[in-house]
Every structure is written in C-alpha cells, then in structure tokens.
C-alpha cells in the first residue's frame, strides 16, 4: 500500500508540473480585438491613441528585420456611431515593434463620407494577420494593445473638461462571418472612396 501511495503521489506531482509548464507556455493567442473611441476631432479635447505591439509569436530563425521573421499586420476597421465603416487600413508591426496611431490624425481624418469633424465617437476593430491586405486576412496571433479614452466631465464651474483613461483592447471571438463582413466592407470603402476611407499608419520609428 505504501508503494501504491508513493506511485499515486508521483503521478499527481508530474501532472501538476505539466499543468504548470503548460500554463507558462500558453499565453493569449487572440487574433481579434475591439475597443471604442469618443470625443474625437473635438475642440479642446485631447487626442486618443491606439497602441499595438508585436510580441514575436510569429518570429522565425531569420535575422531580425527580415520580412519573413515574424512581421504582422494590424488590419484596422473604424466605425462611426451609426455602425457605418468610415475607414480601414493595414499597418505593419515587426517583432518587438510598437505602432502608435492617433485617432484624430491617423484613424479618423480621412473618412469615407468626408465629414470627419462630425465623427466623434465609434468602434475600432482589429485583426492580427500576416497579410498586408485588410480585405484578405491570414489570421496569426501576436498582436496586443491598449487604447486611451477621452472622457468628458463638467468642472465645478460647469466648464467642460476631459479625462484620459487607458485600457487594454478587449479580446474577442472572430466568427468567420464577421471576418468576411469586415473584409468585404473594407473593400467597398476602398473602392467607393477613391482615396477617402483609408486610414494612415505611423512608422514604427516615429512612435509618440
């Protein structure tokens, strides 16, 4: 009985060790993120910033900087508060790189309708991909990010003021129908906009 008890104890320890090792080696492998923006393009309001990093999940044995060594693209889709896609684009992020996107200058400054000053709030959706085409993503984990939010409040003198908060992007489940819908709508925006509706990317070495 003592031998049996010792055997069972060893098995339990091995299982626990394996579970711990698994927990250490398996991180967040999401490929789809959502967030919101508010008070964009608003006089006296500070600008909001979307920041994304590439954790190197797709890195290979190639030397750093090689195109096939873990480069990822953030396919970014922006909706106004009427659920209309206003802009979309695809931004490169190399392993260990960071992308910083201004809502006012990069993400909502070239809307499909041309009325960016009226687009003050909405939704941002992001797909982590190895494809440079936001209308044809190849899903790959490795992107993570945060978003600053501009919150309106009234001071004691009833003068409008703004607070800045920052939260991590919400990991979401990407249904195949949702992926296809985002890609198709982005294609329509690019086609109909003739230059309008395409957001811009800040170079990685120009982070702010």
What are the main properties of this structure?
208 residues, alpha+beta, Hypothetical Protein Tm1070, Chain: A, four-stranded antiparallel sheet, 23% helix, disordered N terminus
Radius of gyration: 22 Å
Continuous helix count: 3
Point out poorly predicted stretches.
Answer: 1-24
Mean pLDDT across all amino acids:
85
Q: What's the layout of helices and strands?
A:
Blueprint: H1 2-25, E1 32-37, E2 49-54, E3 72-80, E4 85-93, E5 98-102, H2 103-107, E6 122-129, E7 143-154, E8 160-168, E9 170-171, H3 176-193, E10 194-197
Would you mind describing this structure in some detail?
The chain is an alpha+beta fold. It has one domain: TM1070-like (Hypothetical Protein Tm1070, Chain: A). Helix content is 23%, strand content 34%. The chain has three helices and ten strands. The longest helix is centred in the first third of the chain and has 24 residues, at 2-25.
